[in-house]
């Protein structure tokens, strides 16, 4: 069992003054969303009602940080799953998951899984995204894109950073939700996770089995809609 505790070698989260207020606002909005979901929970059927992406959406092309056009939603020949993890540089929860994101990328690459880190801030500079990736050790095993028009957000239905989506070669969104249960709530971080939801989903997909829980509620910062 790989070490999945997310505190190892994580650089301290230091919010720049220009971003600190925004991060607090994101966290407050995400907390409000979590409370709403608790008050009005979805039924089991609704939780499993995840989309199947059509060929046009799967072909969505977006440049990575080097300017190369990539298709994060579509599995290449020989790939068995595509994973998107939505993130933002100023979300402390997202940043705390950096070591586990890198571990997952390494552990599953040899099994035909490609992981793309998707920044959701449309104003983020590519150089700043690259600096962030280098600082948090995310530039070694993941492709990184900036979803400036929120096309990937819309395709998967992501609402929080960090949030993961697993896409099969057939275009099925086999899983969407948290990486694991390290956070019980905003500001309530466990010593170690007891549920490894993204890993479990990938193991099921790679074994040709249905994902037991295809939808979980992530904890983190709200993805703000575009103006």
Structure characteristics:
alpha+beta, 227 residues, disordered N terminus, two-stranded antiparallel sheet, 8 helices, Glutaredoxin, five-stranded mixed sheet
Structure description:
With 227 residues, the protein is of the alpha+beta class. It has a single domain, classed as Glutaredoxin (3-Layer(aba) Sandwich), CATH 3.40.30.10. The protein contains eight helices and eleven strands. The strands form four sheets. Strands 5-4-3-7-8 form a five-stranded mixed beta sheet. Strands 1-2 form a two-stranded antiparallel ribbon. Strands 6-11 form a two-stranded antiparallel sheet. A hairpin with a 5-residue loop joins strand 7 (163-167) and strand 8 (173-177). It is globular and about 35 Å long. It starts with 16 loop residues before the first helix and ends in a 5-residue tail after the last strand. Mean pLDDT is 85; it is low at 1-20 and 33-48.
Please state the CA-atom Rg, rounded to the nearest Å: 16 Å
Write down the CATH class.
Alpha Beta
Major beta sheet, strand line-up? 5-4-3-7-8
Pick out the low-confidence regions.
Answer: 1-20, 33-48
Topology as a string of helices (H) and strands (E): HHHEEEHHEHEHEEEEEHE
What fraction strand? Answer: 15-25%
Predict the CATH topology: Glutaredoxin
């Amino acid at each position: 069992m790989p070490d999945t505790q997310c505190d190892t070698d994580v650089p301290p989260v230091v919010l720049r003054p220009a971003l600190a207020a925004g991060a607090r606002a994101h966290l407050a909005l995400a907390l409000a969303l979590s409370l709403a979901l608790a008050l009005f929970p979805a039924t089991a059927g609704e939780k499993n009602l995840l989309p199947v992406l059509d060929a046009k959406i799967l072909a969505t092309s977006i440049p990575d940080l080097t300017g190369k056009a990539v298709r994060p939603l579509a599995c290449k020949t020989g790939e068995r799953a595509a994973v998107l993890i939505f993130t933002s540089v100023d979300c402390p929860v997202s940043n705390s998951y950096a070591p586990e994101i890198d571990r997952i990328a390494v552990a599953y690459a040899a099994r035909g899984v490609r992981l793309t880190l998707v920044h959701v801030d449309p104003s983020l500079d590519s150089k700043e995204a690259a600096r962030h990736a280098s600082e948090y050790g995310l530039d070694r095993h993941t492709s990184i894109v900036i979803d400036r028009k929120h096309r990937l957000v819309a395709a998967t239905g992501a609402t929080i950073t960090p949030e993961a989506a697993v896409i099969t070669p057939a275009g099925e969104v086999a899983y969407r939700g948290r990486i694991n249960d390290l956070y019980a709530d905003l500001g309530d971080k466990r010593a170690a996770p007891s549920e490894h939801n993204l890993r479990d989903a990938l193991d099921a997909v790679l074994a040709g089995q249905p994902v037991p829980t295809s939808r979980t509620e992530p904890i983190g910062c709200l993805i703000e809609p575009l103006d």
